[in-house]
Write a structure and sequence with these properties.
With 295 residues, the chain is an alpha+beta fold. It contains seven helices and 16 strands.
């Protein structure tokens, strides 16, 4: 994901029907999200817990993961309250050091337990997976992902993400911008991605957010991944909304976009000199072609 250069243009499929509630003082107001996205260039990142693929950003664990610093620290965290509950001697500094230096995490943990007259009723991998489930959900809650695609002509994506071709698509010119180095290409594979130490950085777990099953490869996806962890985001920074207005370089309307919405978009874009295109169905093949709308 790191080494591939960001394409000149990336796209986001959107729907005119999306609405959100905003609080203004003591009253709440229903806001049409699309107006914020087109007129103000706002982008609302998504939390991975709400993605349409349950495997998306799911962190897969194997025996090698148990050797990671992250796994060892999590196991130590999980052992302390167990020992406390059983009223047995807590894990010592020396044992913690041995565990961190160990080349076989499972054996070392078994030795720590054996000294205390305990044993593992299931594999350490299962214990770790169970202990990690809520931690992973917390990590997912802390991640904020903006999804883009290289493809503005996808019949499937116009159907899935743009309300059956009634929505629109925003084009962003991101190459050679301050953001281009932070946008990564999604890697599609039939094999799961296992969690490793290199997936962890000071902002949280980013590696697994870039791996998806190859059934999704038609989406040609790119991602901007940020974090909502309190130690990453300053108090005065907006957590759930980002300003992408300076990157907008075109708006594409679906083949079935309602007339009133088309008028609103054209009125705004023509005033701002933003090109507007209408997707047209080709007569001789199953394909869509954007046609520029003149002012």
């Amino acid at each position: 994901g790191d080494l591939v250069e960001c394409p000149k243009y990336l796209y986001r499929y959107r729907s005119f029907d999306d609405k959100k509630i905003e609080c203004l003082g003591d009253r709440s107001l229903q806001v049409e999200t699309w107006k914020k996205e087109v007129f103000e260039g706002r982008v609302m990142p998504t939390c991975p817990l709400y993605f349409n693929d349950p495997y998306d950003c799911d962190f897969c664990i194997d025996q090698k993961t148990l050797q990671s610093k992250f796994a060892k620290s999590t196991i130590i965290e999980n052992l302390k309250p167990i020992f406390e509950k059983l009223k047995i001697e807590t894990i010592t500094e020396k044992e913690i050091e041995n565990l961190h230096n160990s080349s076989n995490t499972e054996e070392t943990v078994e030795e720590i337990l054996k000294i205390r007259g305990c044993n593992l009723k299931m594999s350490l991998l299962d214990v770790f997976c169970n202990g990690l489930k809520s931690k992973i959900d917390d990590l997912k809650k802390g991640l904020a992902v903006v999804c883009f695609t290289e493809d503005v002509k996808s019949i499937l994506m116009w159907s899935h993400y743009a309300n059956n071709h009634r929505g629109f698509c925003i084009e962003y010119k991101l190459a050679q911008t301050d953001l281009s180095k932070q946008i990564r290409k999604v890697i599609y594979s039939s094999e799961r991605h296992y969690l490793r130490d290199e997936d962890l950085n000071e902002k949280g777990i980013f590696g697994p957010t870039l791996y998806k099953s190859d059934v999704w490869k038609y989406e040609k996806e790119w991602r901007y991944v940020t974090a909502n962890f309190p130690w990453v985001i300053s108090k005065n920074e907006k957590r759930f909304s980002m300003d992408f207005s300076k990157y907008i370089s075109g708006i594409y309307l679906g083949t079935n976009t309602p007339e009133d919405k088309e008028k609103e978009v054209k009125k705004f874009c023509f005033k701002k000199n933003i090109p507007v295109y209408k997707m047209k169905m080709k007569y001789d093949t199953y394909a869509l072609e954007p046609q520029k709308i003149d002012n």
